[in-house]
Design brief:
- The complex is a heterodimer of chains A (109) and B (115).
- Chain A has 109 residues and is mainly beta.
- Chain A has strands spanning 3-5, 9-13, 18-25, 32-37, 44-49, 53-57, 60-65, 70-75, 84-91, 97-99, 103-108.
- In chain A, strands 2, 4, 5, 9, 10 and 11 form a six-stranded mixed beta sheet that branches. In chain A, strands 1-3-8-7-6 form a five-stranded antiparallel beta sheet, with no helix packed on it.
- Chain A is globular.
- Chain B is mainly beta.
- Classes of the chains: A mainly beta (109), B mainly beta (115).
- Chains A and B meet through strand 5, strand 9 and strand 10 of A and strand 5 and strand 10 of B.
């Protein structure tokens, strides 16, 4: 079956760095997405990886290892506004997204 | 309109009633999707449409129907609502590509409560 695993909740301190891990199993693979979702709002796109390696975009970076079925999202210089849920999603062979349940990130001052 | 809009924002519905959730996008995206999001679960795909005139079933299609008469609109209908359909419903669209990232853009969601 198809499955995405990510931690349910993480806590970090303002100004610090946090890494949110995601493992996936899908029928075929056409890329790995990370979305941010603030409480009561819609998900918004953060990053996309289809090749192995690290993609950096400002304070956010995303890493992919296709052989391990593994990705992480790295958030640097954490700000209070980064408190949100972070959703990992893998695109399968039918170009459909398989979603994880999301990681709730709590930022403390 | 900018992006994707959904209506209504929220709704309380009696069980057994019929309800249509509306979704409109102005980005000329060819693919559209309906998801439900429940606490502790990931987004689950209900139905999708890869292009106007075609639709497909997702992971949890039972009790729901969709139509795609044109590029912009993708309504979701609950024929006879049941309490288990209480959820937040998100519509999304993407420029579906055979080889590309296919980023999905989401509407603001409809919070539906079935009593």
């Amino acid at each position: 079956g198809q499955n995405i695993d990510q931690p349910t909740e993480m806590t970090a301190t303002e100004g610090a760095i946090v890494q949110i891990n995601c493992t996936y199993q899908t029928s075929g693979f056409n890329g790995l997405f990370w979305y941010q979702q603030h409480a009561g709002e819609a998900p918004t796109f953060l990053s996309y990886n289809v090749l192995d390696g690290l993609e950096e975009k400002g304070r956010f970076s995303s890493f992919l290892s296709r052989s391990k079925g593994y990705s992480y999202l790295l958030l640097k210089e954490l700000q209070m506004k980064d408190s949100a849920s972070y959703l990992c999603a893998a695109m399968d062979s039918n170009y459909q997204l398989i979603w994880g349940a999301g990681t709730k990130l709590i930022i403390k001052p | 309109i900018a992006g994707i809009t959904q209506a209504p924002t929220s709704q309380i519905l009696a069980a057994g009633r019929r309800m249509t959730l509306r979704c409109t996008q102005d980005m000329r995206h060819n693919a559209m999707y309906w998801y439900r999001q429940d606490l502790g679960l990931g987004l689950r795909l209900i139905h999708y449409s890869n292009t106007a005139g075609t639709t497909g079933k997702g992971e949890v299609p039972d009790g729901y129907s969709v139509s795609r008469a044109n590029t912009d609109d993708f309504p979701l209908t609950l024929a006879s609502a049941v309490p288990s359909q209480t959820s937040v419903y998100f519509c999304a669209s993407s420029e579906r590509e055979v080889a590309g990232k296919g980023e999905q853009f989401f509407g603001p969601g409809t919070r539906l409560t079935v009593l």
